[in-house]
Design brief:
521 residues; GMP Synthetase, Chain A, domain 3; 9-stranded mixed beta sheet; 6-stranded parallel beta sheet; AMP-dep_synth/lig_dom; long-chain fatty acid-CoA ligase activity; Long-chain acyl-CoA synthetase
Length: 521
């Protein structure tokens, strides 16, 4: 194949700055290559074989990147673990993934140790970045090992665990092709080429830098960052995302591309005008967003500020998706785009029959050449499939010319008085209120209607919660939203429970209202 792929680029230009840690420490491609080569040698001595897996409970930065590069050139699976989980939840993933080595950063030592004990992984397979009780220093695997490329290199893969709406999370596992890691990495860059992205300096292009804004345990964050690195882009990591800090980093490193979520946009736009204009963001060429529907006015304001660099897509860990260029979105405001060239969409009713254009139904997708299974759960793998397509339970509709619009998650849909009500539509209106920082809408029990609409609002900084604010928020919906969709009541919360990738943990809120009822939605 061609000249892309981290290992080829690193050998050709070892001085290229391939990654920048959140503290500003720069790492050359040569350093990362040597570290990952040594780690392959050390883990093979530990007994790891092709098809085995490793887990990492590590913050954003180069330590996790080295684990990723190690697995992807040695034919192993790498599972980055969500650092917000508790010990038992971590232990479940380490055990379920059958990890042959578990790496823990000292920042997460307490839950990491509990997770190791819960999983039953042998002590000789526990390794630490920093000081973690009962774990060996990770340097035990690398000290004295050669930094030369290992023999018998073969492509590996990430195996992310999906959070799921019910039950335990499941690992999305793809069959390994057994091909050269660089050829596999070059195939990965197809994802970024869909957005028109170009190779960076070591691959013969202009310097490019990719900003990692969200935790690397999320599939999209790993995929976009990894693909950018394989294209020769410098990865610049953020630790804890803050709006002004994000603008500072974009200016400091001339960031050309990033992956974001609508929550990032909302918080950037909430900055005072003088703060926003203080930073030069003109280097940005591709600000790609996904994970949740973006309210049309918020995206419009980002386009007005950053220009036509705001791209959108819709996809899932399992594979397949859509893409909307800035131009396509301007022509079809609110769309998440058309199917990728290698992807197909199917919208069906509750009986599995395809619905006409414009009619909402469950979204099914498929992507050529990406068969997957939920590890250890054949039943779930088959349950979410239909004629070779799969679904994650989202609802939406297609226009006659193939543009997809999202309505909501099936699990979040409210059925009140027999009518289907989509919370996302209500949330998208309420969040536009200047005194609202964040909002969640869901159904709560109602003896007469089955469910009534509840809104939980996080007020903007300095805004006092209470009945007056609730009345003001509802009043602003007049003429914009049918009254049948208005929340019957609004409660207030100090901080909305969201994952750092922007995903709302709605079940945490909803369970409080359903806990004394027989049925939980």
């Amino acid at each position: 194949m061609g000249s892309l792929g981290f290992w080829r680029l690193a050998q050709g230009d070892p001085a290229w700055v391939a990654a920048v840690d959140p503290d500003g420490t720069e790492y050359t491609a040569g350093e990362l290559l040597a570290r990952s080569n040594r780690l392959v040698h050390g883990l093979r001595e530990l007994g790891l074989e092709r098809g085995d897996g490793i887990c990492g409970l590590v913050p954003n930065g180069v330590d996790g990147l080295v684990l990723y590069l190690t697995a992807l050139q040695a034919g192993w699976y790498y599972t980055p673990v969500n650092w917000h989980l508790t010990g038992p939840e971590i232990g479940y993933i380490v055990a379920d993934s059958e990890a042959k080595a578990f790496f823990v950063h000292e920042r997460y030592a307490a839950e990491g140790v509990r997770g190791a004990e819960e999983s039953g992984i042998e002590e000789r397979r526990r390794f630490a970045f920093g000081d973690v009780e009962g774990f060996r220093p990770h340097t035990d695997l690398t000290d004295g090992r050669p930094d030369t490329p290992p023999d018998d290199r073969s492509n590996g893969a990430t195996m992310h665990y999906t959070s799921g709406t019910t039950g335990r999370p499941k690992g999305v596992r793809r069959r390994l092709a057994g091909i050269d890691p660089d050829d596999s990495a070059e195939l990965m860059t197809f994802l970024l080429s869909l957005f028109g992205m170009k190779p960076g300096r070591p691959a013969g292009g202009e310097p490019q830098a990719h900003l990692v804004t969200s935790p690397n345990y999320h599939t999209a964050v790993t995929q976009f960052g990894g693909s950018a690195l394989h294209m020769g882009h410098t990865l610049v990591y953020m630790d804890r995302w803050e709006a002004e800090d994000c603008l500072r980093v974009i200016e400091r490193y001339s960031i050309t591309n990033t992956h974001m979520v609508p929550t990032h946009f909302k918080r950037l736009l909430s900055l005072p005008e003088e703060t926003r204009t203080r930073y030069d963001v003109s280097s940005m060429r591709w600000a790609i967003h996904a994970a949740a529907p973006c309210p049309v006015p918020i995206k419009q304001r980002m386009l007005d500020w950053w220009g036509d660099c705001i791209w959108e897509y819709y996809a899932a860990t399992e594979g397949g998706g859509t893409i909307a260029s800035p131009q396509e979105w301007r022509e079809h405001p609110g769309t998440v785009g058309k199917a990728w060239p290698i992807s197909e969409l199917l919208i069906v009713d509750d009986d599995g029959n395809e619905v006409p254009a414009g009619e909402p139904g469950t979204i099914y997708m498929k992507m050529a050449g990406t068969e997957f299974e939920y590890k250890g759960d054949r039943e779930k793998t088959e349950k979410n499939r239909l004629k070779g397509f799969f679904t994650v339970g989202d609802i939406g509709y297609l226009t006659g010319d193939g543009f997809l619009f999202l309505s909501d998650r099936k699990a979040d849909m409210i059925i009140s008085g027999g009518a289907n009500i989509y919370p996302a539509e209500i949330e998208n209106e309420i969040v536009l209120h200047p005194k609202v920082a964040d909002v969640a809408v869901f159904g709560i029990p109602d003896e007469e209607w089955g469910e009534q609409i509840k809104a939980v609002v996080e007020p903007a900084a300095g805004v006092a919660p209470g009945p007056e604010l609730a009345a003001e928020i509802l009043g602003a919906l007049e003429g914009r939203l049918a009254r049948m969709k208005w929340p019957r009541s609004i409660d207030f919360i100090e901080v909305m429970p969201r994952e750092p990738n922007g995903k709302l943990l709605k079940r945490k809120l909803r369970d409080l209202y359903w806990k004394d009822h027989e049925r939980a939605i």
